[in-house]
Amino acid sequence: MNHGMIEAQELTKVFRVRATRPGLWGAVRGLFTGETTEVRALDGVSFRVPAGERTAYLGVNGAGKSTTIKILAGVLTPGSGRCLVAGREPRQDRYAHARAIGVVFGHRTQLWWDLPVADSFRILARLHDLPPAVAQANLRLFDELLDLGELADRPVRTLSLGQRMRAEVAAALFHDPAVLLLDEPTIGLDLLLKEAVHELVNRVAAERGTTVLLTSHDVADISAICEHVVVVDAGRVVHTGRLHDLLRQAPTRTVRFEYAADADLDAEPLARLLELELGGPAAVTVAGRRRVTVQGPPELVTPQRVLAAASALVAVTDLVAPEPTLGEVLRALYVAPELSRGRR
């Protein structure tokens, strides 16, 4: 059997939370009654990530993403099911597990709050028994891509969120982990630093074979780093596969074209004629004086079909068929009828 670097088998996790009632009196009553209710964060989650693969773990808020990451990191224990990371169960040998993984939690720090950043890295080097040459080489790489050197003498507590996240990403990669778990790793970073984090993660993964599991609300993170996706909703896996294949599942396709100014048809009557020619649910709208947008099901609105229909009426001078965005695909996936039935 070809085992993955990360394997989750039927993971479940149920939390008990204090029950709340509407209104002020309901809130006060809840403080004294001790009533609780169950929240099922994971409901039989199974997936695998092969060694060296970069996978996005996606879902809306409350889908179970952070709970899964915490179980894989050894922070939480599943209610039932089993997981293996780098060949071991996270909670069995926590010290060995910590040496094999790197973790970034966007809202939590692994650095020493009152110490300068450089001291945190010195401590991490001792904890992981890093040879000095390896530690120095990694610090040079982090400084090159993340400007970490400018933060070296500053206590962690004085850093902005963006500055701290730069140090957090570097700390997670400092000991050359086999597995990198990223939960909102670019929160608080500007566009240029996000791109630097993307470059760093991709470079490390390519050169060292690091396995990456990323969860993020930032579509740019997912598109820039990951090749595969696992989508969860309501604690269950609803889709697995290649990112490219997921993008092809977009419910609509858009094609835009421009045509020559000497055409006899204005954009508005041209749009109406195209709707008749293309038929079905294709929607044709005017995007400018000589510019038209066609949107509809991917099998109906293909660049070839739109070009053929438009060229029969006007001289097309430019045509663009942009790929659907990941955000559009995910929105459609979350509201698909299959999702409500818990399709695995």
From TrEMBL:
Membrane topology annotation: Peripheral membrane protein
Acetylation listed as a keyword: no
Residue ranges of every copy of the ABC transporter domain listed in the record: 6-259
UniProt xrefs under InterPro entries: AAA+_ATPase, ABC_transporter-like_ATP-bd, ABC_transporter-like_CS, ABC_transporter_ATP-binding, P-loop_NTPase
Keyword Transport: yes
GO molecular function, one term: ATP binding
Subcellular location: Cell membrane
Keywords carried by this UniProt record: Antibiotic resistance, ATP-binding, Nucleotide-binding, Transport
Signal peptide coordinates: none
Main subcellular location of this protein, as a coarse class: membrane
Protein name: ATP-binding cassette domain-containing protein
